Amino acid sequence: MGGPGFFGVKLTSTNLYAEEWLVLILWGADNWLLLNGQWVAANLNQYQIQKPLLNQLSEDQWDNLSDKLIDATITSALVKNNSSLICLQKESIEHKLEIPSDPKMLPVFAGNGKQRIWFDHENQLDAWVIISTTAELFC
Q1: 17, 121, 135 from 4: Cα distances, Å
Q2: Residue 114: exposed, middle, or buried by beta-carbon count in 10 A (0-12, 13-18, 19+)?
Q3: Buried (b) or exposed (e) across 32-56, using 16+ Cβ within 10 A?
Q4: Do 136 and 23 form a contact (C-beta atoms < 8 A)?
Q5: pLDDT tens-digit map of 61-102
Q6: Cα distance between residue 34 and residue 12, in whole Å
Q7: What is the pLDDT of residues 22-71, one digit of tens each?
Q8: Cα dist. 92→66, 68, 86, 87, 105 in Å?
Q9: Contacts by residues 61-67 (CB-CB < 8 Å, ≥ 24 positions apart)
Q10: Which of 52, 76, 97, 139 has an alpha carbon 20 to 30 Å from 10's alpha carbon atom?
């Protein structure tokens, strides 16, 4: 799901589209995301601030994220230069997956403790890609 530079969500095929992946391609991409205002992931040294939905870094692993995303339907998506919001619905529950416009809502970088920043010259449309099962890449 995450790692050095990606966070991927598998999209089910429809009558119009083949199976595809929606991928966020940022270093530590899962650390840039919130689901319903909660960190998707963070470094171990920040768990005392907020317990993330996903922990794959220690022996005591947990996943409180996948059940919310698997079989959910994307109802809307809005990607701006400095923020992204993907609204999902699973059964009658709505979820918001986002890169917030306020980076202070995100965990800091683990190595240097600095706040994440989305620079003015960067555009989040460049960070989201769709990868089809035919190995085509769409930005």
Answers
A1: 29, 22, 21
A2: exposed
A3: bbbbeeebbbbbeebbeeeebbbbe
A4: no
A5: 999 999 999 999 999 999 999 999 999 999 999 999 999 999
A6: 22
A7: 999 998 899 999 999 999 999 988 999 999 999 987 788 999 999 999 99
A8: 17, 12, 16, 13, 27
A9: 65/1, 65/35, 65/40, 66/1
A10: 52
The larger pLDDT score, comparing residue 17 to residue 134, is at 17
Which residue has tokens 């601030």? 49
Query: What tokens does 32 get?
Result: 């840039």
Give residue limits of the domains in the chain. 7-138
Distances (CA, A) of 64 to 11, 39, 54, 99: 19, 11, 6, 18
Strand pairing class (84-90; 93-99): antiparallel
d(CA 53, CA 5): 18
